[in-house]
Structure formats: structure tokens, C-alpha cells
Amino acid sequence: MEPKRILIDPGHGGRKPGAVRKGVLEKDLNLSIALKVRDFLINMDAEVRMVRTSDVDIPLRTRVKIEKALRPECIVSIHCNAVKNPKVRGYEVLYCSDEGQELSEFLDMYIGGGNEELKSRGIKYNPPEPRSNRLMILHDTVSPAVIVECEFMSNSAGLKWLLNEENQDSMALGIARGINSYVNPVAEEPVNEEQEKEKEETSDGGNSD
Ligand SMILES: [Zn+2]
Fold first, then answer.
1. What are the structural domains of the chain?
2. Beta-carbon contacts of residue 33 (< 8 Å; ≥ 6 apart)
């Protein structure tokens, strides 16, 4: 089987820390988990590209450009969550396209299987309107795109969970398994010629909305 090209996008970086709680910067957690996802995917024979592998600020527009030039099987953006309510915990996966939804479902299933403490908040559709809530990495990219919000930094147990190396490993393994299952559908599945044709036609348009 030919290796599938995957683009991993660790959120924020450089002078953009993302959420900050108790001196912990979201950009560092995102990168740490994303690098683990990369390593797991390489072990699953994927061809992995990273938007960043160090603490640098890459504008969203540039991230979108990288994705458009690369045309990966999918782009998975990795973030950690923070809200005002300190009680909220769990992970969620955001999408805007049908393909993104399918990928989200795989991720939701595989991330949850890896760790007792990890609770799914489900998959969430990000609509194009209002513009203020529109997530560029989902709407402006052309491949199936998702954002994984790993856990809440705004919950003290959640933050502690995120800082633990083994937890990061299980989160990253779940993400990698979800991606792998999405890009390499099981061989036993009968190939339906009609569906294959339809796929070819719809994947040509360039707009995933
Ligand atoms: Zn973020």
C-alpha cells in the first residue's frame, strides 16, 4: 500500500501562546502531542508533514497555503481547550465538511478508547457563519480537515492530565489510530464501483464546504 500523506498542524507557536493557565502555554502542549502523533503515524507507514516542529509563529494564512500546496489526505490541527467555566473537561473534534465529519467520527472513537480519564464531548460542526466563529483551518483548506481539542487547560485536573507524558502518549496514539483508520479503510470492505466513481467526481472540486 502506498504511504498516505498526512499534514499535522500544531496550533499556535512563537509569540502566539494560545491559552495560558498556571504558566503552561497551550502552544507547547500542542507541539508535544503533535510530535507524538507524527511518530505514531510514521510507525503506521504514513508520510507525515508538520506545519511546525519547533516554537515558531506560523500565520493561519500560511498554514492554509502549506495545506493547499501539499494536498494531503487530511489535515489534523491539534489544540488544547480553555473556557471560563473551570468544571468543563473532555476532548472534542471540530469539522465543517462531510469528509471532515467522517474523519472526526474515527478520531472520536479511537481517542476515547485509549484512556479511562478521557471523556468525549463529541464531534462538533463549525458553521461558516458567524464569521467571528469561523475556523479558517477548517473552512479555507481543501482536504478533509479537523481540529482536535485535546482537553481543558481551564480545569485543574485537566491541565494536570495534559502535562503527564503517558497521557499525551495515549491521546496521540488515539489521534494517530483514528487518522490511520480513516485514510486506510479496512481491506475486507467490498469496493463498490459506483461509490468509487462518485468519490472521484466529488474530490475534484477543491472546495470542501
Ligand atoms: Zn488553540
1. 5-202 (3.40.630.40)
2. 10, 78, 150, 168, 171, 172, 175
